[in-house]
Specification:
Blueprint (H helix, E strand, L loop, with lengths): L3 E7 L3 E7 L5 E8 L11 E2 L1 H19 L6 E8 L5 E4 L4 E2 L3 E2 L7 H9 L3 H8 L8 H11 L2 H7 L3 E4 L1 H9 L6 E3 H4 L5 E2 L4 E2 L1 H7 L8 E3 L7 E2 L6 E8 H8 L8 E5 L3 E8 L10 E8 L2 E10 L3 H9 L9 H8 L7 E3 L17 E3 L7 H27 L5 E5 L6 H11 L2 E5 L4 H14 L5 H7 L2 E5 L5 H18 L7
Parallel strand pairs: 1-5, 5-15, 10-13, 16-22, 22-23
Antiparallel strand pairs: 1-2, 2-3, 4-8, 6-7, 6-9, 11-12, 14-15, 16-17, 17-19, 18-19, 20-21, 23-24
Helix pairs in contact: 9-14, 10-12, 11-12, 12-13
Length: about 500
């Protein structure tokens, strides 16, 4: 009987469930967007129950489309938006507050206080992270400090915390499994990435009780089982979305690098099993943990990538679908040097300016929708160059090629400009759903479907390589314009 792997890819704006066959080719998929809540400036929330319902619906639809039954599904891999926080009552199974999303900036002032008190070096040494509202710790603290019911439920030992992977696992196993895994734990700003355990020192600083935290497993492990889709199906793999994409892109050798263009953009470079703290405002994080061996990575995080396209569609309403950006881009006036800095929720690496806000520069009377769209798309490439420069400084290794994936890589104009501005080859894989694929590989490793990471590397195939076509002088001119725009956008104290 033919066997399959189910991958659940729970993203920031949508949930996707994909059925892979034994060659890890896509058999069927289903996707569903869910509501974004913006209660105040800089605040972003999700409804955790709506997220779980989207997982149930897309999974059921994917299974139905594939015409398979649950007994044929060998394992489930889960990958998820990282840093997003859910705290729930284990007795009722209901969250005590909406999920606070990784993009949320409500704890910026608290982060400033932590920095003023001199905790920056300590936190970076333990977690590999910079102090920022992006990470889970300050979001957990905000819920515990601001939601009245939390105090009573804590006393009664009823509260549980999880990032989205843990919340979905707990719901899928009907409360039997309360786990996370190393890559997601490493994004909480509470996890000691060298010792591979929750840091009691940091828990004390944030005043977060250890008892609400899940146990931490390897990325490929036994996470329990679900019976919600029929027969028992083992859940064998979990990883944060960017680390899952790193696995899906087969970045197993030190120095290999990928960049994923989804709601945000995240660049990860494998640096091997030796921990190295960034000196150029990047993050050091866990790339994956397999067979009890931890592999580390440098990461650059851009908060707004595909989200800029969503903004053009949903807020400005200048496009109806993301695909229209390709038409507008090709029609745009290339002579107009317009720079759009999409700092809707601040700027991530290497600036880490939570107070910066979006701006556009260089508009003239001739500037229209096409030029505006092009500036939004190009902003993602410029931000990527910021990361590449920082990563080369940190690693000391010249980057020769960038593997790319995510929704935006369907736009070939974007990839050509990206290659131009980076002066690098950009390699798009045949399977661009690398996040879901990485989760499927982890489930495959756990179930014995795949023997090792070498087998994954052999499966990786290139679809198209984009090579730089601009002269270096033109690249220098364009990038200098970007840096000037960013300087005008950042808050004074963060300007270089």
């Amino acid at each position: 009987m033919e066997k399959f792997i189910l991958s659940i890819d729970q993203g920031t704006t949508s949930t996707r469930s994909i059925i892979f066959d034994d060659n890890f080719e896509i058999v069927s998929s289903d996707q569903l967007e869910f509501k974004q809540y913006f209660p105040k400036d800089g605040c972003v929330e999700h409804d955790p129950q709506e997220i779980f319902n989207s997982v149930l619906q897309t999974t059921q639809n994917a299974i139905k489309k594939a015409k398979v039954n649950s007994s044929q599904i060998l394992g489930i891999g889960i990958t998820n938006q990282r840093e997003t926080v859910v705290i729930w009552d284990k007795q009722t199974g209901k969250p005590i507050y909406k999920a606070i999303v990784w993009q949320d900036r409500r704890t910026v002032n608290y982060c400033k206080d932590l920095t003023r008190k001199g905790f920056a070096k300590k936190i970076q040494k333990i977690t590999g992270l910079v102090i920022d509202a992006y990470f889970s710790a300050t979001k957990i603290k905000w819920i515990l400090d601001n939601i009245e019911s939390s105090k009573k439920l804590l006393k009664e030992d009823r509260l549980l915390f999880g990032t989205i992977d843990t919340w979905l696992l707990w719901k899928l196993t009907e409360g039997r499994s309360f786990f996370t895994e190393a890559t997601n734990a490493s994004r909480t700003m509470l996890y000691d990435i060298k010792k591979n355990c929750w840091s009691k020192e940091l828990l004390k600083i944030f005043n977060i009780p250890y008892k609400i935290l899940p146990d931490v497993k390897d990325s490929a492990d036994d996470f329990g089982y679900t019976t919600l889709f029929g027969d028992k199906i083992k859940i064998g793999g979990m990883a944060g979305d960017q680390q899952a994409a790193t696995i899906g892109q087969a970045c197993f050798k030190p120095g290999s690098i990928k960049s994923t263009y989804g709601t945000g953009c995240f660049m990860i470079m494998n640096i091997g099993q030796k921990l190295k703290i960034s000196k150029n405002n990047l993050l050091t994080t866990i790339a994956y943990k397999i067979n009890n061996k931890t592999t580390y990575a440098l990461e650059g995080s851009i908060f707004i990538a595909g989200a800029a396209v969503q903004w053009l569609r949903d807020s400005l309403k200048v496009i109806k679908t993301a695909q229209e950006t390709e038409i507008f881009y090709s029609k745009s006036d290339q002579s107009q040097k317009i720079y759009f800095v999409p700092a809707f929720v601040g700027l991530g690496a290497p600036y880490w300016d939570g107070e910066a806000r979006g701006a556009i520069f260089g508009m003239t009377r001739n500037t229209g929708i096409a030029e505006f769209v092009k500036a939004a798309i190009d902003s993602v490439a410029y931000q990527t160059k910021d990361l590449v420069i920082a990563m080369q400084k940190d690693s000391g290794v010249p980057i020769k090629q960038l593997k790319v994936d995510g929704g935006m890589v369907a736009n070939e104009d974007f990839l050509q400009f990206l290659s131009n501005i980076l002066i690098l080859n950009c390699d798009r894989p045949k399977v661009t759903e690398t996040t879901a694929l990485g989760a499927a590989y982890l489930a495959g490793l756990s179930s014995g479907f795949i023997k090792n990471t070498e087998e994954i590397s052999k499966k990786w195939q290139s679809d198209k390589i984009f090579k730089p076509k601009l002269h270096k002088k033109e690249v220098k001119y364009l990038y200098e314009g970007w840096l000037k725009a960013v300087k005008k956008t950042t808050t004074k104290k963060n300007r270089k």
